[in-house]
Structures are given as C-alpha cells and as structure tokens.
Amino acid sequence: MIEIRFHGRGGQGAVVASELLAQAAFLDGREPQCFPFFGVERRGAPVTAYARIDDRPVGVRTSIVNPDVVVVLDPGLLATTPVCDGLKDGGLLLVNSPRPVERLAAPDSVRRAAVDATAIAVAHGLGSRTMPIVNTTVLGALARASGAVSLEALGRAIDRFVPSHPEANRAAASDGFASVRCVDAGVPSSAPPTAWAPTAPLVLPDGPIATVPSRSIRTAAWRTLTPSIDLARCTRCNFCWKYCPDDAVELDARGYPVIALDSCKGCGICAQVCPPKTIAMVATEETAP
Amino acid sequence: MAKLTIPAEEWMYRGHAACPGCGPALAMRLLLKGLGPRTVMSIPACCWTVIGTPYPTTALGIALLDNPIESTGASIAGLRAALDALRIEDVRVVGFAGDGGTADIGLQALSGMLERRTDAIFVMYDNEGYMNTGVQRSSATPQGAWTTTTPVEGPRRGKREAKKEIMSIVLAHHPAYAATVNPAFPEDFVRKAEKARDARGPRFLHALTPCPPGWKFSSEETIELGRLATETGLFPLYEVEDGVYRITRRLGTLKPVDEYVRLQGRFRHWEPEDVRELSEEVRRGWERLLRLERETAPAVFPKPPVAIAAA
Questions:
Q1: How far is residue B200's CA from residue B189's CA, in Å, rounded to a whole number?
Q2: Is it true that domain B23-296 has CATH number 3.40.50.970?
Q3: How far is CA B77 from the centre of its chain?
Q4: A contacts of B13 (beta carbons < 8 Å)
Q5: Chain A residues closer than 8 Å to B212 by CB
Q6: Which of A167, A174, A247, B305 has the highest CB neighbour count under 10 A?
Q7: Taking CB atoms and an 8 Å limit, are B13 and A214 in contact across chains?
Q8: ipTM tops 0.85
Q9: Where in the sequence is the domain holding A126, given as residue range(s)?
Q10: Which residue of A37, A204, A218, A242 to mutate against B (max B Cβ within 10 Å)?
C-alpha cells in the first residue's frame, strides 16, 4: 500500500487532487481511497488531504501519519507547516517550487522532487493570476516521481472528473510529468534545517486566552502578486490605506503609502481603487521559503 | 496630502487569517474604527472566529468572547448585564455574526435581545451564505445564486427561494437604531458605527460584505462590487432612528443590476430574463424605501409656529 498526504491552501485544489489521484488509480485497476482533513475551507488557509492506493481493498480509515509520499502544492507551506512530519525514510517529498530541488528544506533521508507547477498552471490559463490552480500539474509530476499512477490513467480521470478546461488540465499534467526534477535520498539538503518544536499540551490560563497581537503572523506567503506603487504619481489620497482589508498599508509622515510586505496578501484592492492608477500588481519573484 | 476621512487608529491588526480581498475583514476594521477600544465583542461560529484568533494570537485590540452560533444575542445580553452589575457604563457591547448566525441559526436570540431592549449593538456581516464551511446556502443567499447546496445543473438553477429581509424583521422590533452599511463606503460605515456606539438600547447594523471565493469573483473587485451593490439600488444605504427612515446615499438613476451580476461567478448561469426580474425587484424595493422615508419624515413644523387667529 502507498500512502500519500497532500498539503495545500484552500483554493489550490488539494482535495480535488486527492480525488483525481484516487480516480486515476481506480482506472489503473487498483483499489484507492481518499478523503480530506475536516477543517476550515477558506481560500489561502492550509488544507490537508489523504489518498491510499493498494492492490487489495483498503480497510484502514484513519488519517495518514506516516506517509510514503508528501505532496506540497504551495512552497510557502514549507516555512509554516511541518509537512515532512512522519514521512518514511526513503519516502518522497514533492513540492511545487521553481527552486533547485537540492535546496528544498527536507530531511536527508527522503527523496525530493520539485516541479514549477505555478508557472505551468498560469501558462495553461488554470485559475486566476492571484490564485493559480496547480493540482493537475502537480499530479502529473507525482505520476512520474512516484509511479503511483500512470499518466494515461490520470489523463482519463481528468477528462471524466474535471468539469472545466479538461484539455488545459491534461496538458498541464503532461508538462508536470515532463518537467519534474528529482534527487535521491542521501543527498544533503543545502537549505538551512528547520527545527520544529513538539506542540506543548494546552494549559488554559485564568485570564484572556489569546493575547498576542496577530501582527506577529506573516501572511506574505499567501501572495502571488505584489503591489508596486509609482510614488511620483501618487496624489496621497489614502484610498489604498482606507480600503485595505488586511491593515497592510501604512502612511508615512508625508502621507505617502507604504505597503507592509510581511502582511500583504496581494488581493489587489489597492491597485483597483487607486484613482490615478499608480499601483501595479507585479508577479512575486519567489515567495517563502 | 488629503485629510483622513476615517479615524487613523487601528483596532483590527494585520496578520489575521481572512482570504485575500475579504469583505468581512474590511467591515471589522471599519466597525472598530467607529466603535473604538472601549468595546467588548461576542463572535459566534462564523468566518471571523477563525479569521481573528489563530491561537495564541488575536487580530482584535478589544476584548473578545467566543460563543456558539445560535447564541450571539443571548451572549451580548449577558455581557451587558455583567457590565451593569460591575457598574461599568462606558463599555459598549457588540455582537458580530455572519448571516447564518443572525438570520438563520441566531434569529431567536437576536429577536430576544431586541425585544428585551438590551443595550447592545448587533452587527450582521452578510456574505450571503455559510462561507467558512465551504459555501452552503443560507436564508440570506440571494435567489438564483449558485452555492454548493444549490447547484446549477440540469433543471436546477441555484437557490430557488428569495433572500430573507433581515432589516424588516429587525425593524419590526422597533430598535433604537438600525442601519445598512457597506465597507465600500467607509465614511458612511464609520459614521453609522459611531452613531450606534453613542445610542442606547438595541441597535442593529446590516453590513453587506462581498466574499471572493463564495461569490466567485477576483479578490481585487471587492470594493467595486460593494459600490455596485449600493449604486444599483440592490443594497441601499439608509438608517432608521426611532422609526424615522433616512437614506444616507441618494441615488439619481439606478445603475443596471447587470453590472453587479456579471462580475460574479455565482450568477454565471443567469439569462437576460433573470436580470430583468431582479431589476424590477430592485426598483420596487428602492421605491418602497423612498416612500418609507417620505412617510416617516418628521413634520418640518411639528406645531404651527404661530396660532392663526380666526378671521
């Protein structure tokens, strides 16, 4: 049995990815299972989904704590979520990332693979520019890197179960299959190691529970486009400040806007409401990590 | 440098977990600018419970109580009673609930709080569905809108039933103050929040808060959609004080509702006939509002200024 855990953000299609993988495995004549972790379903929020593939009916119904394969649809999650928790030695970590595969932060004991699924999805017009839908591209890469399903079965699953743009999705899966880059276990990672402290047992205080201002949380990794202000043409009308739902625009002493880049989620409202149109939304070169 | 038209102080902090372009997040930011820090807030299960408080952080610079989805009205009544017992008079009590926690599951407690004349503010942020759990229909979802539980396939064409008129229900309780607010009009929003802060007795604000993933539009369009909702006459801005209606944003000719509808994927299946029906309904609603404003307007001279002697 092969056990696969998907990590993504709401809106990227992690849950649908687990379903498509299971459907493709079924078309390959195998016995699949898939289900999402039940949690909040907001766009941008971390999402987990599971899939199992076996040659016999799968009896176990629990969530997957020791996966053979971990698939990460958003590279920003590497910095905020312990995605490699429980990943077996010799297992596979597949990340949607434009980075060199040697530089993915992961234990040396696992195989690593990377595919620039965001660029491929955008090239095929999947999702919006602010939120590309990368799941089918990543599944193509997964088919190659893990051998869990055949690309042919994946294509048939996409035709049957993807309601919009099945052709673009199939082409994206093929591109993902062709362009995935792998490195074997044992090759040391050149990324700095990330230390994960175990979660401490919860002790509720007598007073207020949540007292740390959320300003300490960085939400920059949600962003695919970054506002860029042409200050020479700025009229200091402060509309960008007034309409920001993330409190991510500050005004300096002279009234010019300053974007808090650690917090801006790249929604694009400031660019839209700016009367002289001095704000452009430009592609974020590379988000965290 | 333009003067600030709304208070500079921020009581909603960055780092919260709302979706990019979130209407409810901007509504909270503007509401707290109007209410200020001497505020205690109760939030039921809704988007904002997860937006605001990823443990151990809080995105709100005010005291916050989490309560079950049906209980917002009851919990703010309890908070008010507790503050009264402690003789704390200058702290406002506010409930901040989604449309499900107000017009569906929370309706009983809301009605109870209004009827008992609880000295508190109830704010409904209306994203027209159960968005936090993945876009299910609520009684506030508009007719003909797609949701996951009102699909568009075969003969099914989105929600069959009309949107519940929460303002009419609230106004039937004769609140001290009730108003519609829209984060696309920040000055009007903050002014009404300040008015609600300074009034006494039960107060209610109905905020229309566009939801990019639930309404299926691109996150940068949140403000444009909000503006169109009001300028088409679909969501007019008005307030009702002691029964007197006052429209706070006058409209000359109503913009075509089609401009609002076509920006949203949840209405993608609409035919011209659907748009015509909605236009008619919006026009009737707007005319009704104008009539209510006329009929409830206080007389310019409550009493004749000079007694007219009989000839």
A1: 19
A2: yes
A3: 20
A4: 213-215, 247
A5: 43, 267
A6: A247
A7: yes
A8: yes
A9: 2-183
A10: A242
